[in-house]
Amino acid sequence: MEGSIKCNIVSASEKPDRKTQEKNRRIQMKYLCSKLFSLIPPNQSKEMMSQQDQVDEAISYIGRLKERVEGLKRRKEMVIAQGTCPLRAPMVEVRELDSTLEVILISGLQKNFTMQEIINILEEEGAQVVTANYSTVDDTILYTIHAQVKITRLGVDASRIYLRLQKLVC
């Protein structure tokens, strides 16, 4: 009966059989899908969505991000084009997308606030800052802050954040 026992030891020169290759491929795909799904913001329970629905949601989210990037590029070009003329009043914009916030603030060099004050307002309103950047062009400063809602089910009030930031910068 020894001849009927199958040995699964594979030498370095032998390739794994098709079954093992397929199993490894499926494990790799499962890992890659879970990594992809962890990058999209939660808008509903991901456990309730099929894998195809999750892939569709990721594709949709990537499309929305591309649109945002294009819009930000256009806005940056406008700011740079206007950079030779000083802005009269600071400009504040707060955008909410699912559980993320984007704050864009444009001011002159004679500002009367700090980046930390902006971050404090966001954190007091229930957002956690993920990235905060600024750039200076001539006499204009462009602040861009990305934040996530700390407690998704509670959310944040973007209009309240906007009013508090307006009050801070004006």
Overview of this structure, please?
- With 170 residues, the chain is an alpha+beta fold.
- The protein is 45% helix and 22% strand.
- The chain is built from four helices and four strands; from the N terminus they run H-H-E-E-H-E-E-H.
- The chain has a four-stranded antiparallel sheet with strand order 1-2-4-3, with helices on one face.
- A hairpin with a 2-residue loop joins strand 3 and strand 4.
- Helix 1 packs across helix 2 and helix 3 runs antiparallel to helix 4.
- It is elongated and about 70 Å long.
- The termini are far apart.
- The N terminus is likely disordered.
- SSE run: HHEEHEEH
The tally of beta strands, per DSSP, is 4
Average pLDDT metric: 81
Strand order of the largest sheet: 1-2-4-3
Structural class: alpha+beta
How large, in whole angstroms, is the Cα Rg? 25 Å
Distance between the terminal alpha carbons, to the nearest Å? 89 Å
